[in-house]
Amino acid sequence: MFKRIGSLAAALGLAGSALLAPAAAQAEGQIRIAEQFGIVYLLLNVVRDQHLIEKHGQADGLDIKVDWTQLSGGSAVNDALLSGSVDIAGAGVGPLLTIWDRTHGRQNVKGVASLGNFPYLLVSNNPNVKTIADFTEKDRIAVPAVSVSVQSRFLQYAAAQQWGDKDYNRLDKYTVAVPHPDASAALISGGTELNAHFSNPPFQEQEIASPNVHTVLDTYDLLGPNSPTVLFATEKFRNDNPKTYHAFIEALAEAADFIQHNKPAAAETYIRVTHAKVSQADLLKILDNPKYEFSIDPKGTYKLAEFMYRVGAIKNKPASWQDYFFQDARPLKGS
Question: Which N-terminal stretch is annotated as signal sequence (predicted)?
Fold first, then answer.
């Protein structure tokens, strides 16, 4: 089964590479958005389902054409953004910091908004793995993208706390890139060399509901409440498309308000848009978790930024979170 998962991941990688062909610059009134998997993208699911970008564009006298694509892993998303294949990238704060650093003084990619605050869980079906110190060469940990995904960065942060900064990447050799849905299915069914998964909701909740799966690490214990997944764009897109960009920000804010006040409807939206195999009742239990907050304001991202600079993962040191997030007419309130 694990070979089949590897083949699927490779196939998705090839599909993602097809998006990397140079694309013509987009004119005002067009926006292309790349998202990934999980409830952390619920803001975008609501925006898409209710046509909120189009709604706010029309309020400003602009008809906006919106294109959506789904990728797996921060590397594929970053490549798509830099190639001009997408305008808005949805990925972890780790990939944001990587692309912000690499484009500093050039394309100047920065964060647009958070997608909310959620604990991410590292889980395993290996009863011998109680903490990250118990992983051995016999274990394989699924992440969306090796080394650069936010899950990989969280694992590195935890390793640095366990063994010191010099060994921050000690567990990277045990990680493999597998999309969340496939990693979750493999972990629950068992019988493959993949026996751990640094996941996100709802996959992590489905996994720990299995009697053979347990939590190894909770990122809220590691970093406190934080925004693991964010949206980002190039400075050029933001400057060249002010009405489109503004409509997108307003759409996100409206979606966040909708989710906070209409969780049953938000759960139904997620299931309908993503075709997820989860019941509305189970999804509502997840959305009602007080640790989950759907907000466009980034929280708790700077600790990871400081860490990545300290270990040399990024070369430019941000003075604060505001260095890697745009500030707009609706200013973000972050940390």
Answer: 1-27
